[in-house]
Structures
1.
Amino acid sequence: MKRPPAPDRLSTLVGIVLLAVMLFPVYWMVNASLQPAGNLLRAGWFPRHPDFGGYATALHDQGRNLVTSLVVALGSVVLSLALAAPAAYALAQFRLRGTRLMLFGVLVTQMVPGIVVANALYGAYTDLGLLNSRLGLVLADSTAGVPFSILLLHAFLRGVPREIVEAARVDGAGRLRVLWSVVLPVSRNALITAGLFTFLFSWSDFLFAVTLNTTDTVRPVTVGIYEYIGAHTNQWNALMATAVLASLPASVLLVLAQRHVTAGVTGGAVR
Amino acid sequence: MRRAGSLRRPRLPERVTRWLFLLPALAYLLLFFGYPLVENVVMSFRQYSASTFYTGEAPFAGLRNYAEVLPSDLFREAVLTTVLFTVGSLVGQFVIGLALALFFQRRFPLNGVLRSLLLLPWLLPLVVSGTTWRWMLDTDTGVVDRALRDLHVVSSGVPWLTGTSEALVSVILVNIWVGIPFNTAILYGGLQAVPAHLYEAAKLDGAGPVASFRHVTWPLLRPVAGVVLVLGVVYTVKVLDIILVVTGGGPADATQTLATRSYALSFQQFDFGRGAALGNVLILLSLVLALVHLRAGRRALDSRGVVR
Amino acid sequence: MRSAAISARRRFTALAGTVALALTAAGCGGGTGSASADGKVTSITALDYYTDTAEHAQWGARLTACGKRAGVTVEHRSVPGASLVPQVLRQASSRTLPDLLMLDNPDLQQIAQTGALTPLDAYGVDAGGYAEGIRSAGTYRGKVYGLAPTVSTVALFYNKDMLAEAGVAVPRTWAELKKAAAELTRPGRYGMAVDANATFEGTWQFLPFLWSNGGDETRLDAPQAAQALQLWVDLVRSGSMSQSVLNWTQADVHDQFVAGRTAMMVNGPWRISELDKAATLHWGVAPLPVREAGQTVVTPLGGEVWTVPQNSSKARQKKAAQVLACLNDSRSMLALARQYHTVPSRTAVASRYAREVPSMAAFVRSVERARARTGRLGVKWPRAATGIYTAVQAALTGEQTPREALRHAQRIATGS
């Protein structure tokens, strides 16, 4: 190593400007949400007199939908990890025949358009009584989380030394036991990443939410926002406040679990 | 003793237990990907109408759905729009993403923080981004046109959402905005993997930044770039949320893609037969691109090993 | 035959069995049933498109009042106008229809055709004395399926101050309209606004221009139709009307008018109560202009009919029918008419209303002449309506000339 380079402050400045440009829409959303109610046809550049009325309306109208989104997203995380973790473990450690083919199959699922899945599920759900149910939405939303988690966990578990597993096996632990008390603990980080992204996928889901629900019993916040457009034109502040609330999980996770988010993007690349 | 027991375990059940780990996920994937693929083909040969699900009647229609959908102008326009949307989005995302990735190659304070904050647009629900942009792009009251007018770039407002070409440009721009962070992150990862000594060698050979990019960076980045582009195609072809929220497919159907058409046919007009037919065309389009994917697939799998 | 569409789904059901076992434990249905155990109905659900905050509250109150008389509470929900029909079709297929359903009158026959609605004579609802237009719109194959408490139509609303300031008279012909709109246009303000959305609402606003000029939904490729569309194109091209009309709903148009961003608009009298709330706004209302002086204005008949959908519970249907009858009794008619400046749909009540509220007499007369959208085409109306808004969009964006656009519309309407 040569002499330590002087901190490149100019680049930092350029970086901040670039980021500001990229995040301007996010700022604008927050700004709009703080405008007073009424005819919001022209918002100022800054919320000089922040008005939280939009948030009150948003919470009143969309509070239930936010809870629905949360429940569905958490359900999807549980389901996806429960299905993906054993599968990824098997694919990574068991030297099964057809492993490559199966991984390829999982990769191919990424090509199936959501609208095709929704088309077919609509009929099936009608007959099974899964329309307008949280379970139905959890199952459908996991179409993003399951393949993603399998790929991500597989990539991680391939790197877990076989000796650790073998050692536990030799000690007499069954395969399930090994998965539970050896494999899962060492893959904590990968599990968090997979769960985190599955959460965001389900939270953001719009297609299944709008096609597999015909009443308002189970209405995630994405559909709530969509229905706001064209219905309450004079309540842009409430709409934008809802949008801000719907952005909270992504923003919070980005700040709190930065490392996992970055790992998920490079490792999984699903959307 | 337990050890002895486990050694004595017969081979067949052992193989069965191994498969039991895979079975639930496999069953799920078959139900939620395999079944829809098959069912869509079946549906596309039947005639659905508003009353189908009420009466349970969807008579066999042979190829009629395809015969009605494929020759129509709307179909041709939808294919063209889908291709334009996909190509436009990819080029924009990739070029800007690469530029940002190269920029973040530099060492400067706050680099890591800025890089991860950059991910925000990609993580937000698409409905949220779409709604915000829809409001920003309004011709008369939107902030984009207001800024352009104030800067004297344009004299009258650009009809972002009400002109047919402009609306397509708008949805592409929004989709680019959403995709930049992903491209930046992956390409940055690829750039980091380029050994530093190669740059130094190039520098010693008297190569400028452009030459060093052409001869060192690009050749080594190509596998990653391929993965990014192929994944990009696969994800962009089926985009629905953004278009539905920003333009609703309009004006005058200018932003209707195969995906939004299929949605409208199935869930607005309740013609699931034709909706499924279009869905199958969409899959076919993806499949053509999948031939490329197939070749890049292995690389994609390998590149996933980055997770720690 | 109970078709293979269903049997195909058995495959999914069979496949699902494998996974279902593991998951049913976590199952949670989305049930909403509200009939208590002894079968007594305590609450019913109602669906309409009155999403506007004030309107939603007012209708909620009315439904509650009528529900009280029938001994039930009413769970009231509103969805945006354009998504009501798709929503209803989806609910029909999943058998989750509300107990009481509001439909825009031209949609009734299409929905009745699917078998999702029940004829009202089964409940002994009094369907006598209704004006012919709205009665026919609520009837499918000789049976009455829907009744509207009040009817309405559209007119030209203008900002008196803006007209006075520009020295412009209220336009009566299209030429005057274009001239007035141009003279009223200022930076940040347009002269005119309509709803040219790619929805049936856009079609509804175009109809008075089409019909008053002698055009007809059965001959969209006729020159009279092209002239009407040319008028809208000219207004946008000259900058007197924002191109954003392509995305505006009637509610947006109203907001633009209230915010002073347009001097004139096409809208309905149900907006009047909201317009009156804007203290600084001095507005007037006039018949829509015609192409040449001497032509008669023909406007579409507006009005939402209430229906009782198919439902597994006869008891709930009966309660819903009671609420429906209550909404349609003369007292409700008069109250609603006063509230929204619409016209009671029973002729006897309407003439009483005209006597009591003289300012509405003109509307009562214009509604009498208003034309039902399903009058000519019946269940085929939605196709023509789709053709019309498609043509409006294509022409206003400049993709096609009005003539080309309407020729295409005619093909859509006839399904060729």
2.
Amino acid sequence: MGTASAGVVRPLSNLLYRRSTLRLFLLLTPPLLWFGVVYLGSLLALLAQSFNTFDDFTMAVTPEFTWANYQALFEEANADIVLRTVGMAAAVTIASALLAFPIAYYVARYAQGWRKGFFYVAIMLPMWASYIVKAYAWTVILTKGGILYWLIGNLGLTGALEWVLELPYVGGTSLSTSNLGRFLVFTYIWLPFMILPVQASIERVPPQLLQASADLGARPTQTFRTVILPLAFPGVVAGSIFTFSLTLGDYIIPQLVGPPGLFIGSMVYTLQGSVGNLPLAAAFTGVPILLVGAYLAMARRLGAFDAL
Amino acid sequence: MSTAVELRQVSRHYGAVRAVDAVSLSIQDGEFFSLLGPSGSGKTTCLRLIAGFEQPTSGSLLLHGQEAAGVPPYERDVNTVFQDYALFPHMSVRDNVAYGLMVKGVEKRKRHAEAEAALELVALKGFGQRRPAELSGGQRQRVALARAVINKPRVLLLDEPLGALDLRLREQMQTELKSLQRRLGITFIYVTHDQGEALSMSDRVAVFNNGRIEQVDTPRGLYTKPRTVFVARFVGASNVVEGELARRITGSERPFSVRPEHIRFVREAQAEHLGVEGTLVDVQYHGATSRFTVEVPGGPPLNVSLPNGEEEAVRPALGEPVRLAWSRHAMVELEPGA
């Protein structure tokens, strides 16, 4: 039996060894099929859908080419949704970057041994818990009479909180119905997605470069600005793509926390569900694709990827 | 001549490991000074102490007479050429070279002009627009050199700067480094594990072993008068004879060394020479010279190096019994040690 199987296996492996193109073909066909058909195919189908015509009266979709769905995005009600979502995504991204950088810097440059392990667990652990559970937990934390109100009250800062809640755009009737509350939840949920790429990029900066910088007379702040920050910036860009697009696409947190008003995600959910307007839903999903594409192009022009 | 760098009983310990152990050293202004030793001997730590990347555990380090302990690297008048060059990958060659001026706030046009001049000094004129990744190893080495001298430091530290280059380029760079040092007239402190490099370039060399200095001397002094067994073995090829064999030859167990080129084959023992009998076991052809390996009873084999091409009175064949002889002056008594 051993000789029989060797009789088949050996010529086959010899053939694969000699024919590198065949080997590559066999190796790449399954993943390329997956990417080509399942990934890009469905994305293209979605984009094609966005040019179909939706009849408001019959609620039927006909494959007639139209720009009407994209024009509809500029109607005031829809444009509001886009601006609300993009504004929140931008705020969450900036806050995540500001919070993540010092943490990532500490973990990458200073933490050793168990401290490093502790930070990895501390950063990753919230990601293991269910997203829904965390979002609901935050509604309890933020609600009137909840732990955050209790804490702020005991710190004697209730007045300050009330002042903040009266600010336009930020405030609301309570923390759990304010944009501030929604922002806190988003930032909490997506922060690990910023910390990890930033930490990886800071870790990749060779320590010799920092020594070379100091050796040439640069004070620590100068080294940070001219060496660490530019070299870590691709990590910030990578992290911001996560936080930005995850916020853009989310439809659960906007329902649970914050003031009324739809997000892109919840609008898509509504359109494809009860309304059945798949073409407009598809046009809405074009917005994040376009925005992230534009963001990447801008980051590239600013030289964010020069260090790669 | 004044003292550029002085170490007084400087130690650097990492826990129980004594990377640098009570080293005292005085380097003159304008000197080409090498720190030579095997890896882990403390020479690089010594350089890092001078650069300010490390602080001494104890002892005192003076830069041009000023105590340097606690002074950060960016406030020291020394610059370093790193082993792997440590060029900034996100900057052009010109911005790399101009970096030292940039952080000092020198305006753009002036620092670019000076960077261009520094690049010309290392024969890289016109390379300013390129990225470090687009350069060869030798070119990166020159950029690192230009970057380190643009601040006109009084002391330049070089950490095995030629280690990553191939042999031909290394020899060419040795010549260029030496001539650059003469032109700039600044102190070079050069770390290397390559004894040939240290001998050919330096005014003086400190030989490191196990965190301590074995000997500080001129290249000629190191080669002709090694003080310890370690130095005799590490600097140049040498026959170190100790123990029983030493007693048979000189009457004392004190180790001594004799260079292979100072030993001759003779037919019979001569009163004015020292010598020993053995068996020729190997001959290696090295071009200008040939190396003969002779097994002697009571010790490790001895090497004999003879020039090729000239008439030799005695040139034995493999396996033959031979008699070796050398002059008393060629023999150096050594302090025992590692």
3.
Amino acid sequence: MLTSIFVGGLAIGCVYALIALGFSMIMRATSIIHFAQGEVMMIGSMSGLTAVWLAPFLPAPVVLLVGMTAGGLAAVAMELAAYRTLRRRGVPLMNIITATVGMSILCINGARLIWGSEPLRYPDLFGVEPVLLGGARVPPQLLWIAAAGLLLMAGLQLFLKHTRTGIAMQAVAQDPDAAQLMGVNLTRTMAATFGIAGMMAGAAGVMLGSLFFSFFEMGFITGLKAFVAATLGGLGSIVGAILGGLLFGLIETFSAVYVSSAYKDAVGMLLLILLLLFLPQGLVGLWRRGR
Amino acid sequence: MLTLNGVTAGYDDVTCLRGVSLEVRQGEIVTLIGANGAGKSTTLRTISGLLAPRGGEIVFEGNSIAGLTPDRIVALGLVQVPEGRRVFPELTVEENLRIGAHLAPGSRADIRNRLEEVYGRFARLKERRRQAGGTLSGGEQQMLAFGRAMMARPRMLMLDEPSLGLAPLVVTEVMKAVRAFRDAGITVLLVEQNANLALRLADRGYVMETGVVTMTGPAASLLTDPHVRASYLGAKTAGPPARPAMAETTGGEQAS
């Protein structure tokens, strides 16, 4: 029982973490809080589902890849079409952030037009036979999602550490002027940041869709929760976003089982407020203070 | 090599540069001195493309670079080391250096070569290569900023206040590094508030006041100029160059 709750919490935590990562990366590179990140996740989810409709034989990793590609493209399109233009015009940051809320609503309505308002079921991508794990019977999709999520996050770390674009993205996040003086193109790197953040969210979309449903409003509350998770970890920190997402998923799942599934959101939010009262910097603050 | 002709620039409705003209020739060390707020740093920011000029010409090796983005200017071989070192605090020393070679088309082996070259000049950086940039001392950070710029294999370097906030002993090291740049064939434009130090290092100098160049000449003659001595070298009166020792002392204090 405990094992399967834990794996379930880990799986949903990975979904939050993947979206939260995007919030943090975009925030550090551009100072924008990207409130349409949940909708990028939804677009990834819907695109993955559409791919399965068109080609039912597609294996799960390919569907995941379709979702990532769609999410990445959607986020880059938002950056190029709207945010970059606003930045160039010298629009105040708060107004750009407001524009991301507008983008989110636009996407929700657009998705309703394309995919309708009914929740759509994903086919079983990962099989249905429960897996025995330490004596507990765990649904296979939970295991797959947790594994894929952790793998993606590890891959992102490698990308940021070892590729030229990855290091440039980190440099821009830490000091945009100095990064430019080293030959980093700011506009291109910001677009790349949106792209990578969108890919992570797109993957989360396919995962969340295959756990529950895909529907046009799925990004709204999930995006907000992921934002909370990013704040919980310490907004702007990559490690913080991962920790915050996983922790939030676990807390939510455990409180759904042991407290009440109707009030699981309240428990999570209460915890957030308490944590921020004592650790205003989020979880990373704890580690930074210890150094 | 680099020519500025009547360059104007500013932020919002504040004009900081009111027609700056200067020239740096191949192989020279040229210094730009002046008081705080005279527009020295703004001049460098404008040359390196962080700030778009409002008027005037900037020509680097025959290419007009006014209005280009910083990365394209770096690609031409003109690299700025910003004021306050500005190393990336959360990247390791080696990652900081790798960023310097961001535009290098090169293979792994090429990047390795460049790294070894930097480590050859600044041995301390090699010892600390896995350490985060933010944990280095001020002097080490300055060496890292120099090394990071070297990774781009620049033809010309612009150094913004490299001695700022460093202990006198470290300042000597910085001066040595600047001379080594020139010996390696890199042309240098040096901005300094420590005019004494800068003029002893440079071939020629320009004096800036409130957004324009007011004086220029060989560094040696600026060092003995009464006005320069009174305004920037700490001599009490604009008298004859009688007490060079006094100028030395003041320079040292500024640097510490």
